[in-house]
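Explain this record to help learners:
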Amino acid sequence: MSLAVAQPRVLADALGTSWVRQVALVAGAAGFTGLCAQIAFYLPSNPLVPVTMQTFAVLVVGGALGALRGASAIALYVALGVAGVPWFAERSSGFAMPSFGYILGFILAALIVGSLAQTGASRRLVSNFGLMILGSLVIYLVGATWLKYSTGLPWFGAESAWTYGVRDFLIGDAIKILLATATLPIAWRIVNRVQRQDDPS
């Protein structure tokens, strides 16, 4: 008599379910996000919000870990950064910055992306592409709103929340979305191949 084995809903499920591994995954994902945040620079036309690889990290973390673990990892990253760990962009910390709204948006984006990834959407390029776009839109929404109200900028115009908070990042974020879109389905193929090799039947 064979026992049915539950299929992993997200990539993290394929790595084991012990609490030690879950804690390690959450801590590791927070560290990965902090590492990606160090890839950062300011555009000459935008002194308020830096270009970073955090968005890529958040999208991948949410898609790979699922809702609870993904949001927990990003919340840990945010909490430690606010507490003083210098792992926000350019080794910064705290929350007194115009770009802090994007950091808060990371938590919500990881939660939403992770929730949808648990339906199997991260396994396929097309559906995963939709996940990455949705996650990015959530980050824009929270980040640009914080930027507007923390600086007093108008929503639209030459110097506005739209310009400094969204428009300047569309091309770069499109590249990060494509990278994140490809990363998860490729990782799924590797996991499935390993599982087939380990299956004695």
In short: The chain has one domain: 14-187. The mean pLDDT is 93.
